[in-house]
Amino acid sequence: MTDSKTQNSTDTWVVIPAFNEGAQIATVIDRVLAYGYQVVVVDDGSETYVGEHIYSEAVHICRHIVNLGQGAALQTGIKYALMNNAQYIVTFDADGQHSADEISRLLQPLKAGSCDIVLGSRFMSGGAAVGIPKSKSILLHAAIIFSKFASGLSLTDTHNGFRAMTAKAAHSIAITQNGMAHATQILTEISRHKLRMQEVPVTITYTEYSLQKGQKLSNAFNIAWESMMEMFRK
Amino acid sequence: MSSIQVILILGILGSFLTYLSFFRSVLFDRFAALGLFVLLFLAVLFPNATTVVANQLGVGRGADLVLYLFAVGTLFCLILLYTQLGKTKQVQTEIIRTLAINSAKKASDDVAH
């Protein structure tokens, strides 16, 4: 059996959606590239082309000509990675909240063949939400209840953008929710396709920059509305 | 509100939502729209008949009945438009996605670098 430390990482693609990200995205990307993963950044119609902040020549960039939403950007990146023969796909935030060190922790169960998709959790034992505002923590815990209703899955963290999946799972999941409701839709897709799912503890680090870029609490109603309307669309 | 009204409202709402979820067809939508227009024409041509029908249904005046039907029909049309808008948005997304992937490049290809 191949030692996981020496296993080729180039079969793993990290999808990073980006919208109006600043220069810090270069740091985020460099940390991911250091592990040998392939990286595709999806510029979701940013006012300034994200490529102007990227100095690593190995990064692939797809650009939406208009802003569609994070869900749409993720689907674009996933599709691009699959077209480039990705065996494993990781979704990763551009704002520095996720740690590249933990990507291998998400990949381990996939490579062991014990599941099809791994979801990062900041609220399970071993995970952490460093610097999380109390209001956001309350809302995220409420989202767990909503997601249970929508998908039937009992999870400890349902709106965590740090996740990994096999190519087979990525082919199954169709993200049609362009906005932030995509997180709930991914869970309903897991349930619909009966994908084997596992949660893994991760650390989410909130900074002033990431909180300023992040979702407003008032958007929770929009997410719930879009998730419910999805049930009536064919 | 009488008990039968509550039951009928719940029944109509449930049927409508079930239709939207599982049995959508453009043909049925068109027949429903056509039926509504026919009813409106008949109401204009035979205004006294609306009062007779209204009384049978427990509504005081024919004009009130027409108003209720108009409200339900308008809501139906708005929901159809909303779902159609969603489909258009999906098509738009696919076009933008295809453009993004077809024009994808590596950072090393950028002129600035």
Describe the structure.
The complex is a heterodimer of chains A (234) and B (113). Chain A has 234 residues and is α/β, with parallel strands linked by helices. Chain A has a single domain (12-230), classed as Spore Coat Polysaccharide Biosynthesis Protein SpsA, Chain A, CATH 3.90.550.10. Helices cover 37% and strands 18% of the residues of chain A. Chain A has helices spanning 24-33, 70-83, 103-111, 134-151, 167-172, 182-192, 208-213, 219-230, and strands spanning 12-18, 38-44, 60-64, 88-91, 117-121, 128-130, 163-166, 197-201, 203-205. In chain A, the strands form 2 sheets. In chain A, strands 3-2-1-4-7-5-8 form a 7-stranded mixed β-sheet, with helices on both faces. Chain A has a two-stranded parallel sheet with strand order 6-9. In chain A, helix 1 links the parallel strand 1 and strand 2. In chain A, helix 4 packs parallel to helix 8 (219-230). In chain A, 45% of the residues are buried. The model of chain A is unreliable at 1-7 (pLDDT under 50). The longest helix of chain B has 41 residues, at 62-102. Chain B has 113 residues and is mainly alpha-helical. Chain B has helices spanning 3-22, 26-45, 47-56, 62-102; one strand spanning 105-106. In chain B, helix 2 (26-45) crosses helix 3 and helix 3 packs across helix 4 (62-102). The model of chain B has no long low-confidence stretch (mean pLDDT 79). Chain B has a domain at 25-103. Helix content of chain B is 81%, strand content 2%. Chain B starts with a helix and ends in a 7-residue tail after the last strand. Strand 3 (60-64) of chain A pairs antiparallel with strand 1 (105-106) of chain B, so a sheet runs across the interface.
